[in-house]
Write a structure and sequence with these properties.
Elements (H helix, E strand, L loop, with lengths): L2 H12 L11 H11 L4 H14 L3 H5 L3 H8 L5 H17 L8 H4 L7 H12 L8 H10 L9 H14 L4 H14 L35 E11 L3 E3 L1 E2 L10 E2 L8 E13 L3 E12 L5 E3 H6 L8 H19 L1
Parallel strand pairs: 1-6
Antiparallel strand pairs: 2-7, 3-4, 5-6
Helix pairs in contact: 1-11, 2-3, 2-8, 8-11, 9-10, 9-11
Length: 330
């Protein structure tokens, strides 16, 4: 029995029943792959289902209102992924008759679709015999072949790509997913389940947790901020962030005090971690008289894309103004 045969049999018996695996719809596969970047599969599933309900196909996504699109993406982070989805959908409508192209080479020309995502769509949806190498597959092959070189280096990436390409078999849509599933469920970064691995007989490493080899991560830059949550007692003042940069075009609270302050209350501090920067934030709820630029709680919850970096302040501030309303009734 070959490694591929053993792996495919394991996958057939153990594959997770995921919504986007129920058929080979290229649009569903594409959306799920983009959402799964930087997000655990289990965490992104409710977002996927809601997104597909709102935007069931490429034409509807191409015509999406930016505000509504950002709102549908709220909580997933890395909002550039969301913006690239729409750019890609528009290009598909304009250049590919409203469909995703069927080859890895063509898919890689689209906004936001890299080598891995292109390979996943081409192989799983269209059956093209090409690789789909994500972090899971890199980990599996670095361990299978005891690759001791830095996997972030170009030469090592080429080495692993060759090993993966040489292993490809039919049905390619099942094989590529089996490799990903093996990395996600068995050949995990920490505490790999080697005793449950269907391809353990072919594995050449005795120290799986030391692989893959990667350089030490640089320390994140720390930025301290003070957030001022202005409220008129009913809603909150919000500002749109710049069109470029971190959290581009999304909404945030103020970083300055207003001119006329009725009273203030402290909010719990919160630290939000991005990939390269850490925001250590203190916050103050500020009751004001101004009424320009304020949004109701319903508008913020249902219409505005509020980044998760500011969500804890919104939740606590909302509770405080709700308490004020109840106290006034008494």
């Amino acid at each position: 029995m070959t490694m591929q045969t053993k792996l495919l049999a394991w996958y057939e018996a153990n594959a997770r029943k995921l919504a986007f695996r129920q058929n080979r719809n290229p649009y569903f596969i594409w959306i799920s792959e983009i959402m799964a970047q930087q997000t655990r599969i289990e965490a992104m599933l409710p977002y996927f289902e809601n997104f597909i309900r709102l935007y069931p196909d490429l034409p509807s996504l191409a015509q999406a209102d930016d505000e509504s699109l950002h709102k549908a993406w709220e909580g997933l982070g890395y909002y550039s992924r969301c913006r690239n989805l729409k750019k890609c959908a528009i290009e598909c409508v304009e250049c590919f008759d409203g469909r995703l192209p069927s080859t890895k080479a063509e898919l890689k020309t689209l906004p936001g679709i890299g080598d891995y995502t292109a390979g996943a769509i081409a192989s799983i949806a269209f059956g093209e015999k090409v690789s789909a190498i994500d972090g899971n597959v890199v980990r599996v092959f670095s361990r299978l072949y005891d690759v001791r070189a830095d996997v972030t280096k170009a030469a090592t990436k080429k080495q692993i790509a060759r090993l993966v390409d040489d292993s490809l078999c039919e049905p390619i849509e099942a094989y590529n997913q089996a490799l990903m599933e093996l990395g996600a469920m068995v050949c995990t970064p920490k505490n790999p389940k080697c005793d449950q691995c269907p391809v353990a007989a072919w594995c050449q490493t005795d120290e799986p947790e030391t692989l893959p080899v990667k350089p030490e991560k640089k320390a994140r830059r720390v930025e301290r901020k003070h957030v001022y949550v202005w409220t008129d007692g009913k809603g909150f003042h919000m500002n749109r962030r710049p069109k470029t940069g971190l959290l581009a075009n999304l909404y945030e609270f103020d970083e300055t005090m207003p001119d006329e302050v009725v009273r203030t209350e402290p909010l719990a501090p919160y630290t939000h971690i991005f990939s390269h920067v850490e925001w250590q934030m203190d916050a103050t709820l500020v009751f004001v008289k101004e009424d320009a630029g304020f949004y109701s709680v319903d508008q913020i919850e249902n219409e505005l894309a509020l980044p998760s970096a500011f969500a804890p302040f919104f939740e606590e501030a909302r509770e405080k103004i709700d308490e004020d309303v109840e106290n006034e009734k008494e």
